[in-house]
Write a structure and sequence with these properties.
Length: 92
């Protein structure tokens, strides 16, 4: 089973990294997306974005997870802030 997963991953990665045909790239440009070197991955992301902008909650969640993955890969040097509410109501 593990080898099948690796093969699927490699195949998908290869397919997604293929460049779009000039007609497909032009279609994206006509929709208002100015993208340099568009790939199939780009087209998938645009389709996901369109679904999310139409209100599809699962598409919104998926985009958020993709964006947060990118931020995790590239740390900005910022530290997380934890707010602790330690002020207690004296009347209780």
């Amino acid at each position: 089973m593990r080898e099948n997963d690796k093969l699927l991953y490699k195949t998908l990665k290869t397919l997604l990294n293929e460049k779009l045909s000039p007609q497909e790239a032009q279609s994206l440009r006509e929709e208002g997306f100015e993208i340099k070197n568009p790939t199939r991955k780009t087209a998938v992301m645009v389709a996901l974005y369109k679904k999310a902008s139409a209100g599809d909650l699962s598409a919104i969640k998926e985009l958020r997870s993709i964006v947060s993955e990118k931020n995790i890969d590239k740390p900005t040097g910022e530290k997380a802030v934890m707010i602790i509410d330690d002020i207690r109501n004296k009347d209780v």
